[in-house]
């Protein structure tokens, strides 16, 4: 049974989400502030965190960033802010998905299922892939560049794994959104672009002139083996 931490200071939302998730078979624990959430996350027994952006003590963004420095547990961020810049900020600090209030509890449960399913799919892989100075151990979910471990968020890891398993293949944004994020592509969402940008900053010697994750203008992205 997967354990999910809900971090929100609104009791009604916590009660509703807890009820829906428990009915779906999840074990739910809750926190009403960021400091309690950080303590619970430090225990390392969580499968997913649902994190509200607005908390009474420290911001959800700070909580997300601090958790991400220590853990790769998937994080679904909740917020009343619907702007694209707010969503991009959440993804850049390590959130895997972003849900704007008000939302349907059923939609949240569907997002949770999709995230945990993707995590489970990748955990079942046992291959090792080496291209250029990158090495990806799918069994251990570890990425190394020139022998040094690179810390990726779960979404960045799934994006890299999707691309690197099919070098030379061009993926459309729609395909990557569905494959990596488990979401329908609306034609305007730039979530996957944000993940690509973050991935390049972590893997490329020069993110502005990427050797691995190439842009196919007007289409999407592909992974290439460096010439050197």
From TrEMBL:
Residues 126-225 form the OmpR/PhoB-type domain. The keyword Translocase does not apply. Residues 3-116 form the Response regulatory domain. The modification 4-aspartylphosphate is found at residue 52. GO terms for cellular component: cytosol; protein-DNA complex. One of its GO terms (molecular function) is transcription cis-regulatory region binding. PANTHER family: ALKALINE PHOSPHATASE SYNTHESIS TRANSCRIPTIONAL REGULATORY PROTEIN PHOP, REGULATOR OF RPOS. This is Response regulator transcription factor.
């Amino acid at each position: 049974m997967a354990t999910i931490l809900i971090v929100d200071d609104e009791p009604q939302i916590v009660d509703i989400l807890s009820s829906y998730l428990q009915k779906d078979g999840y074990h739910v624990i809750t926190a009403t502030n960021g400091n309690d959430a950080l303590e619970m996350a430090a225990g390392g027994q969580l499968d997913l965190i649902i994190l509200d952006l607005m908390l009474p003590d420290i911001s959800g963004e700070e909580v997300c960033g601090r958790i991400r420095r220590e853990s790769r547990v998937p994080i679904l961020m909740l917020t009343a802010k619907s702007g694209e810049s707010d969503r991009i900020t959440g993804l850049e600090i390590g959130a895997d998905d972003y849900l704007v209030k008000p939302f349907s509890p059923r939609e949240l449960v569907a997002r949770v299922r999709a995230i945990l399913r993707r995590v489970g799919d990748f955990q079942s892989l046992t291959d090792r892939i080496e291209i250029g100075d990158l090495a990806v151990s799918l069994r251990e979910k570890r990425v190394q560049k020139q022998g040094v471990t690179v810390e990726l968020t779960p979404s960045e890891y799934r994006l890299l794994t999707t691309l690197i398993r099919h070098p030379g293949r061009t993926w459309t944004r729609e395909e990557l959104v569905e494959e990596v994020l488990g979401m329908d592509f609306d034609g305007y969402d730039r979530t996957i672009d944000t993940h690509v940008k973050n991935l390049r900053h972590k893997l490329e010697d020069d993110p502005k002139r990427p050797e691995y994750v190439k842009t196919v203008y007007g289409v999407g992205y592909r992974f290439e083996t460096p010439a050197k």
